[in-house]
Design goal:
With 329 residues, the protein is α+β, with helices and mostly antiparallel strands. The chain has 9 helices and 14 strands. Bound molecules: 2-oxoglutaric acid (AKG) and fe (ii) ion. This is 2-oxoglutarate-dependent ethylene/succinate-forming enzyme.
């Protein structure tokens, strides 16, 4: 793999209208500055549900180590990676080879390989014994000394950032910051390292790195290398907008749970990846999924009086199980 994976500057103008939101005030700002961030989040979520964040508080140095460790993992021999196949894990942790998931119904399987990590939870934990979705121990590669420590450190920081964003989203909906506390407790988030080989010159029709899909959870925090290739659907003119790398930012998008909570006011938008850079592409997705037992139903004020909510109430776990069933059929 080449060493071109670290994010570097790209002009914010290249984001074609996907806003870059400074979330620094969420940590240190006064009430007026926090309200201004909430207003920007509201506008972004009512629009495409995709935005960049800067001043996010995760160090460049840690992000660089995450990419290095990910590159080291995907460079391992196939048999070493396959020894950690996610099929060995009752909680969907571990390695997934190329073409194992089809995110876009009817399209060929995705041209990506990945590695799934979650919070390390012992096999004797009551939640694991009860069979809670995506909850349990990880499968860790041996022979990559820094891998586990790096991913644990990143997982903890991404979780903290996810909590910050979800609280700010509560404020953006004129709800108390504590509104989602039950959802935020015992969150079963997923860290997914992704590797996309270059798109072949003659792909099967419709073959992509990642087919068009919406994300399943609450909020996704995405790091990408310099390759580009992430595209977001513009529902208005049915085009695809590039979401190129922008230095020192995450791409953040709202997942299905926020669309359900807000009765469609906030958008869980289709997106896809086509790696036409001619080189390997790495990205790192942190899916803030929340407490699997939490019931997701239309929020107060998101349906007009007397109007039936557009989505039935579901638990996080029910929704996730259905999304996994559909894309791993
Ligand atoms: O790799 C990317 O840039 C996006 C990945 C993605 O959309 C996903 O894993 O849900
Ligand atoms: Fe996605």
């Amino acid at each position: 793999m080449n060493a071109l994976h670290r994010p570097e500057p790209a002009s914010p103008a290249a984001t074609k209208g996907l806003p870059v939101i400074d979330v620094g005030p969420l940590r240190g700002g006064d009430a007026a500055q926090k309200a201004e961030v909430a207003a920007q989040l509201r506008s972004a979520c009512e629009n495409r549900g995709f935005f960049y964040i800067r001043n996010h508080g995760v160090s460049k140095e840690l992000i660089s180590r995450v990419f290095d460790a990910s590159e080291g993992f995907f460079d391992l021999p196939p048999e070493t990676k396959l020894a950690l196949d996610k099929s060995f894990s009752p909680c969907n942790r571990g390695y997934e080879p190329l073409r194992a998931q089809t995110l876009e119904a009817g399209a060929p399987p995705d041209l990506k390989e990945s590695f799934y990590i979650g919070e390390e939870i012992g096999a004797d934990d009551p939640r694991v014994l009860a069979g809670r979705f995506n909850t349990g121990p990880n499968q860790w590669p041996s022979g990559l000394p820094a891998f586990r420590e790096t991913m644990d450190a990143y997982f903890a920081q991404a979780h903290e950032l996810g909590v910050l964003i979800v609280r700010a989203l509560a404020a953006s909906l004129d709800l108390p910051a504590s509104h989602f506390d039950d959802y935020l407790t015992d969150a079963a988030s997923t860290l997914r390292l992704l590797h996309y080989p270059p798109q072949p010159p003659n792909p099967s029709p419709g073959e992509k790195g990642c087919g068009a899909h919406t994300d399943f959870g609450g909020v996704t925090l995405l790091l990408q290398d310099q390759s580009g290739g992430l595209q977001v659907r513009d529902a208005l003119d049915e085009s695809w907008i590039d979401a190129p790398p922008v230095a020192d930012t995450f791409v953040v998008n709202i997942g299905d749970l926020f669309e359900r909570w807000t009765n469609g006011r906030y958008h869980s938008t289709l997106h896809r990846v086509i790696n036409s850079s001619g080189r390997e592409r790495l990205s790192v997705a942190f899916f803030f999924t929340g407490n699997p037992t939490h019931l997701v139903e239309c929020l107060p004020g998101c349906a007009a009086p007397g109007e039936a909510p557009r989505y039935a109430a579901v638990t996080v776990e029910e929704h996730l199980r259905e999304c996994y069933r559909r894309t791993y059929a």
